[in-house]
Amino acid sequence: MILDLFAGPGGWSHALTVLGVPDVGLEWDEWACKTRSAAGQLTIRTDVAQYPVWPFLGRTAGFIASPPCQAWSRAGKRLGLLDQPLVHQAVADLAQGRDTRGQLVGACRDPRSLLAAEPMRYLHALHTVGEPEWIAMEEVPDVLPLWRHYAAILRTWGFSAWAGILNAADYGVPQTRRRAILLASRTRTAAPPEPTHARSPEPETLFGPGRERWVSMAEALGWGATDRPVPTVCAGGGPGGGPEPFPSGSRKILADARARGTWKQPPITQEIDHTSGDERSTQPGSQGTRGYRPAGDHRWSWSLRSNNQAHATIRSIEEPAGTLFFGHRANECVWIAEPSHDEDTEQSPAPESIRITAQEAGLLQTFPADYPWAGNKGQAFAQIGNAVPPRLAAHLLAPHLGTSVSPDDFTLAA
User: Fold this and answer.
1) Is residue 90 one of the residues assigned to a domain?
2) Rounded Cα gap, residues 396 and 145, in angstroms
């Protein structure tokens, strides 16, 4: 079997499904487990730190782990960085068969920090029976020193090991998501897969075709780059939110109508949003949904703003997104309208920003448009932001499985 610790909603698992190989995932979060179940993925709902290793001994060929990143992520308090010496100590002790987690966790500023050492408990036990054959682990960039510590230990056990930072955009993910990756193998030289994409397209050479240009958000979402599409309008809701009020194909329906010439620009009127008392532009019959300027208005183009902080990443739809992260900022990742360079917009009010939908966020992580996200909007966003992009995962795993990733394996747009 392939064992997947902290399996989340199935980033690694969906990649393996595409590659034709199943896995078993260990995951604690209720909604991630429900998503995995709906996606047909084998899951054990458990606390990874408490689950015994013996059921997997003698039957584990591949080992995957993506420990929770909240303690290390730049989007959080990053107390995990202060706990690094304790985590390294836990890894060193577990590699020698000494379980000092109970003593060390009490000294951690963030108890989640020690979860990054948890894979070593499994790896040490598996190593006693000559397993696994290969290992793949992923985390936020600040965990790289810890991955290098793992790699040094694995080399003493006979593994070839590599640890470094990879950009998901270099592998066809419409997002410049940088992650610390650890790859190890008993049977082949561990190395990162060759990138398939680059910031600028590369010409064909005597050695084969050059890398393609990074995948843009417009391409991934099925929005023509010249279409100036309108994001789906979402009704109300706080951070927890509720179900999306429009069907997943609503953008496609709008695009198809424009292509057939049957879509007409409705008039924009000023109405009162009774949830806030604000006056905003809405379409007649929108029932209080957020207003927008229809796609026929080419004075504005859409960009994605990652959050409402001053340093937030803002990317045009014709570029990859920045790193997507959610949690308490789920409702801060929004589509914003920016003036077109070739239009006079001084006398034209900008369309209001519109929150990204869970389906859009999932597509930008390279999950299928119909992936069965469980829970309300907040719960779905949390799963998406923590997931490994399946397309990146497939490139990392394919060499260990003796296969390759086809450009047709991941059709992003709905």
Assistant:
1) yes
2) 20
